[in-house]
Amino acid sequence: MPVVTSSLSRDQERNLLTLFGHVRLHLLYKGSVHGFTAAAFHCRCDQQGPTVIVAYNAAGFVFGAYTSKDYAQSGQEVHDGEAFLYSMAPERNKPLRVGGISGQRAFTDGGTGPNFGALVFLCEDRPLVQSFPGTCFNFQAAEMHGEDLALTEFEVYRVEELGNLLEKPWRNIQWTAEKKQQLMTSIQNYLPDLKSVNQVRVLLVGPVGAGKSSFFNSINSAFRGNMTCQAITGTAGTSVTTQFRAYTIKAGRRGANLPLILCDTMGLEEDADSGLNIDDIVSILKGHTKDRYQFSTCSSILEDSPGYKKHVTLNDTIHCVAYVIDTCKVSLLSQKMLDKFTAIRKKTNQLGIPQILLMTKVDEACPLVAKDLKNVYQSVYIQKKARQLSESLGIPLSYVLPVKNYSEELELDLNTDILLFMVLDQILNYADNFFENQITDDQDETNGPELYRAGNYSRQVEHCEANIV
């Protein structure tokens, strides 16, 4: 017997799965193979637990119904608070989801085709749907099925829960003291490819309260061997950081400086006249902003401003941008904030500067990670949020890195340090890519801005973005 395959496209399946938690779909029944009859449906779908109906029509709609209850031909009205109808259409980015009317049945468990009141499938043992909006479920017929009630295909899937932890981590991490030492040594011994550059400069950008300053403090603490609070942090509604700060990090209390500088900024805010503005970010990227420059929400830094640096070299420019976002607030990012990130990303792409994304507060976002940080790459929730951020901000998933800052601890933690050091290690790798795209001329190190050769890198980034949108 030939294998029965799903008619869902990859995008359709991904969109359908967004309506559930961490599940997989197991195809039970396919009308074109098993027959568009109630008997064929019940033969393969009764007593199967949670199921979802997937109906297709010629208008391009994919729609159906989910129930967490069994089909059993009991003749009873079945109430199911988890039941819903849904619809996907080519012109919609997200599925339409319709919950049941309070107090009314989810479906009638008879011997006919699936009867959800508002939608009755396999009418008269044919590939047809009857539509009665307002019966058990309310919807607009045009939005649900485009008023095309003839089916080109009809499928039913069992919805199988996969739990809260993935069977295998989506990234393999060695949680050992040896791995921590290896990362520390690699970071301390790093040398930029360009002789004209002494240290990699990393710009931290993110909303107010995302944890930019805390990230620096955490890195500083991990390398010094004790808790530090050099950068001011807080929980105010507006940015605690009001200056541009370029922080160096020492390996130990009196050790040598690490080969990188973390540059902290004022937080991003939704309103155009609040928080860090995009013009100031561009000035920072190009190296024109001096350390301790006081940001102003009223105006951007200008050439005649006290904190403006006119003559810059590659030592002054930013070599990698790290976006910092609170994992707990991924779903709360407004369209205005996403638009700001898009504008910043485009400006950064034009300069050929690599970009990564740090997901902070993963322990607060997921109880399983709070219990054991080593669950961070097995947490279904953290992986889902990483993918959501990747798609929303147009940054490849491989550039999205979960991290935990030190916040209330008094002692260092091995696993926290490993995640922090992995971020720095990747930043240095991406900075290497930036340096490789520069025009090197050791005899002329005063042409900082003119050393950019952004074309190749920008095209690579745009190609990556096109593949994930």
Word description of this protein:
The chain has 469 residues and is of the alpha+beta class. The chain is built from 13 helices and 17 strands. The longest helix has 23 residues, at 414-436. The model is unreliable at 440-469 (pLDDT under 50).
Rg over CA atoms? 27 Å
The coarse silhouette is: elongated
**Class computed from helices, strands and strand pairing:** alpha+beta
Order of helices and strands: HEHHEEEEEEEEHEHEHEEHEEHEHHHEHH
Biggest sheet character: 7 strands, mixed
Q: Tell how many strands the DSSP assignment holds.
A: 17
Query: Widest sheet: strand order?
Result: 14-12-13-11-15-16-17
Low-pLDDT runs: 440-469
Helix content percent band:
25-40%
Keywords:
single chain; 469 residues; alpha+beta; 7-stranded mixed β-sheet; 6-stranded antiparallel β-sheet; 29% helix; elongated; disordered C terminus
Can I get a quick summary?
The protein is an alpha+beta fold and 469 residues long. The chain has helices spanning 10-17, 31-34, 38-45, 141-145, 177-188, 212-224, 278-285, 335-350, 362-365, 367-371, 380-393, 414-436, 455-468, and strands at residues 23-30, 51-57, 62-67, 76-78, 84-88, 96-99, 107-109, 119-121, 129-131, 151-161, 200-205, 243-250, 257-264, 293-294, 320-326, 355-360, 400-402. The two termini are 38 Å apart.
